[in-house]
Amino acid sequence: MKNNEPISAIMTKDIIALNRDDDLEKAEILFKRHKIRHIPVVKEEVVIGMLSYTDLLRISFADAVDETETEVDTLVYNMFTIDQVMAKNLVTVAPDNTIKEVAEVLAKKEFHALPVVDKGLLVGIVTTTDLINYLIKQL
């Protein structure tokens, strides 16, 4: 296994992101449509937060709706903004951080996704699933 391989080798580069002005209904639709669990929140291309599907579950009954369902109950979502629900104190990594370094950060923290930032701009996202898939390929 290569210890010095950069995280850019396994990160997701085709980023699905939200703006802080988007609503939580749009977020849930994106989570379900793309089968993802974390969405960076950006202002232009600068990451300002991270929204997880778990964040939505905490404020709604999103888990009671079939994941293939495209209609969502917006009553609860209209009570909150993305800015109120997203995580704001983010840890970010650079594309040249090694896979090992990023795995160590994720192992020590209580989150499962990290924005990958280059020169202040969001260029990717890496998740624990990315790391597990990498490990599977190595074995």
From TrEMBL:
The record's keywords, sorted A to Z, are:
CBS domain
Matching Pfam families, A to Z?
CBS
UniProt cross-references to PROSITE patterns, sorted A to Z: CBS
Using the record's annotation, list all stretches that form the CBS domain. Answer: 11-67, 86-139
Indicate the segments annotated as coiled coil, or none if absent. none
State the protein's name: CBS domain-containing protein
Q: Which organism is it from?
A: Winogradskyella litoriviva
